[in-house]
Amino acid sequence: MTQSTALGPDGEFDAIRTLLDRWGARAVGIGDDAALVDVPRGDTLVLSVDSSVENRHFRRGWLTAREIGYKAVTAALSDIAAMAARPVGVLVALAIPDTWRSELLSIADGIGDALAAANTVIRGGNITASTELSITTTVIGAAFEPLTRSGARAGDLVYVTGELGGPRASLQRLEAGQEAGVHRDRLARPVARLEEARWLAEHGAHAAIDISDGLIGDLRHVAAASGVGITLDAARIPRVAGVDIATAVVAGEEYELVVTTPAAFDTAAFERRFALPLTEIGAVSAMRPNEVRVIGARVADTSGHDHFSS
Fold first, then answer.
1. What single string gives the DSSP state of each residue in 224-288?
2. Which of 40, 102, 36, 94 is CA-nearest to residue 69?
3. 199 near 257, Cβ under 8 Å?
4. Are 229 and 293 in contact (CB under 8 A)?
5. CA 294 – CA 45 distance, rounded (Å)
6. Rounded average pLDDT over 83-108
7. What are φ and ψ of residue 53, in 5° steps?
């Protein structure tokens, strides 16, 4: 394990020392200008970055500071999960307003929770003052044969992990001034499906993406990257209790995986291994390239979430 380098004086580095004490063994090799990461020979380095910004991705009062830290890092880890990569470390940049200073260690605890869940470590980052809370996470992973969005082929089957709609159902309640409801944990404590993705890759998956912007919206990226069409069967799409199909197919912040595969998965084996459903929901064809259709339900919005929409 790479040893940390002694940090110099001043308030910024005092804050960093406080965070390092909080993270303990979950922070390694801190103190130089850049992180050093050994990657197994033959693997591909897999990198992604994700930002979580106050009043854009979350509102104070809807989530605790610990949940905000956890969710920000988990969302970034989900990106490398979609490529069947194993995480080898994260870099975290914190922009902290004065109004959040008292919550810094709670945010750090949430980040630590996400690291522990993914069995990975902090390898560096940055901290600065700001007018709004922002957490930017760079994840570093490695994979021997990464899954991509461009691997789907005509004849593939489409599968999704978990059940959809919980985060959106909770968000709708919060926006209406109500309690988040029974699906609050799906909004506040999502899971990056890291081990699940590697199982799917090992059992023949061709392509994958995580559902951050909605099932249809994210599958449209797969269709465009692969030059194929995708048809979904509304009756098969799994959703949480109380959520209709029109909501489930556009609900974001799921962080479940949707994959394509040339042969049927052993869904019972998957569920035994992960205590999580894996459901066949559609198929890939050469017809209608770049298009995602839902058969058996009227779906008004197929665009998915747009970060630049109002």
1. HHHT-EEEEEGGG--B-TT--HHHHTT------EEEEESS---HHHHHHHHSS-EEEEEEEESSS
2. 94
3. no
4. yes
5. 35
6. 96
7. -120, 135
Tell me: pLDDT of 254 over 70. Answer: yes
CB neighbour list of residue 134: distance below 8 Å, 6 or more residues apart: 51, 52, 53, 54, 93, 94, 95
* CATH number, span 149-295: 3.90.650.10
* Residue from 168, 179, 167, 186 nearest 61 by CA: 179
CATH topology of domain 11-143: 60s Ribosomal Protein L30; Chain: A; (3.30.1330)
The whole-angstrom separation of Cα 127 and Cα 180 is 31
Domain limits of the chain? Answer: 11-143, 149-295
- The predicted structure's pLDDT at residue 107: 97
Q: How many Cβ atoms sit within 10 Å of the Cβ of residue 242?
A: 12
Ranking 14-18, 110-114, 203-207, 255-259 by mean pLDDT, the lowest is: 14-18
157 pairs with which residues across the strands?
A: 261, 283
- The sign of the CA dihedral 3, 5, 6, 11 is negative
Alpha helices in 119-266 (DSSP H): 166-175, 184-188, 194-202, 215-226, 245-248
Tokens linked to 292: 């995602």
pLDDT digits (tens, 9 = 90+) for 110-140: 999 999 999 999 999 999 999 999 999 999 9
